Amino acid sequence: MQNKRFISADRIVVKIGTSTLIRQNSKINLKVIKKLAHVLSSLKKDGKDVVLVSSGAIGVGMGVLGIDTRPIKISKQQAVAAVGQAELMQIYNEAFHEYGMSVGQMLITRDIIDYPESHTNVMNSFQELLSMENTIPIVNENDTVTVSELDHHTKFGDNDQLSAIVTNLVDADLLIMLSDIDGFYSANPLKVPDAKLIDQITKINPDIIAAAGGHGTKFGTGGMTTKLKAAELILKHNQQMVLTNGKNPEVIFNILSGEPVGTLFTKNPQ
Ligand code: ADP
């Protein structure tokens, strides 16, 4: 039995990936959303500050529109995301209402980093939402307006990095990244079945980067590469990140009680 971890977490950001939210049959995993709503609502009621960063808009949109493969054309992706985002928020709304919570939708772009005014505005919104007793902010990239052009980059690129940026912005103690895999392995377990789960990572070195393979499912986008970039940002700001399987979001309780769940990214090995 491994030692307990010391996890400081008065302010927590939880990121849930598309591969956890959407089943292989393209249907949304309502069981996961309901459990997530239960866990985050109880943390909030216990006095913790909680922010949810949710992927899944395109995946959910594909299900609503009956599209089987992720569109390649950007405008099509944006349209599918617009449909999916509305559906997703409706589902979150209903799930959180069960526990007396409201949700606040925050659709943001990279402008919050590049433009001081946008930064101030988003910080003010976060502060107000976090100070509300029964409200959880749910963040996603504003897919319909983001562009990635030479003179104007408004895209974060992916929600893994977005969640790390949000963790930095709101000065959270911990980022919990819920994916479809138990943690970071010595190699992609889909390709190397005897790959070993790594308990803790203190530095993103070339060996770790080399161990990150592609994404696992047709819905997943970033794979481990973007999760490592996120972890790099977290370590740079002396924060902590736990990467684990989100199939049962109650795992968040285990993480907060110090159980050695998933992979802990920290500068202070425990
Ligand atoms: P999400 O939708 O949660 O962001 P992704 O599908 O983008 O998830 O990424 C998770 C996938 O990354 C896993 O299912 C796994 O197949 C793949 N992967 C690649 N390299 C590794 C590794 N070293 N350890 C764990 N998973 C890995």
Automatic annotation (TrEMBL):
Record keyword Amino-acid biosynthesis present: yes
Keywords, in A-Z order: Amino-acid biosynthesis, ATP-binding, Cytoplasm, Kinase, Nucleotide-binding, Proline biosynthesis, Transferase
Location in or out of the cell: Cytoplasm
Top-tier EC class: transferase
Gene Ontology MF, one: ATP binding
Domain of life: Bacteria
GO cellular component entries: cytosol
Amino-acid positions noted as binding ATP in the UniProt annotation, renumbered to this chain: K15, S179, D180, T221, G222, G223, M224, T225, T226, K227
PROSITE patterns membership: GLUTAMATE_5_KINASE (PS00902)
Enzyme nomenclature, EC number: 2.7.2.11
Catalyses which reaction(s): L-glutamate + ATP = L-glutamyl 5-phosphate + ADP
Pfam families documented for this protein: AA_kinase
Role description: Catalyzes the transfer of a phosphate group to glutamate to form L-glutamate 5-phosphate.
Family according to the record: Belongs to the glutamate 5-kinase family.
Descriptive protein name: Glutamate 5-kinase
